[in-house]
Input
Amino acid sequence: MPAVPRPEELRSNAERLAEAVGAPLPRHFRDRPIELRSVGPLSVELARDPSLRAEDEHSNLVWVRVTEELPDDPLLHVCLMTYISDLTLIETALLEHGITMLDGRTTGASLDHAMWFHRPFRADRWLLYAQESPVAAGGRVLARGQVFTAEGDLVVSVVQEGLIRISGTPRD
Output
């Protein structure tokens, strides 16, 4: 597991996003059942200030968890992690290019997504989602991720191919 600050030491992505855009976020951004706490800069922060990205850094490290206590149903935790795994993976490829899905010009879609579940975990406990993108070319991106428990156990591996399109005109 990568050496990173504990989630309790980081601000939530919703709080950081509100600060970056300079306005309160709509309620559906603030009151989410899934909490994300990025270790490094968010894409919207990088789009505004590219100097925030370390030149040798090509990863996206995000602590994730479901905010409510969940029942002890392992399938429920697997299903929720499947959903969570798609929230930030394609964006990982955009980070080093200073592009954000929030710019009104960039859209993306998942072309394929594969996951391997190595051992039991709880989606309502902090999990570190370590992501990287080895290639982005021709409008396609490949991103990989590993999910670790707070104790450092690898519990899930993820690979995704995505499609990225950037238009000249921002969407409303």
In short: Strands lie at 34-38, 59-66, 106-117, 127-137, 140-149, 154-166. The mean pLDDT is 85. The longest strand covers residues 154-166. The longest helix spans residues 74-84.
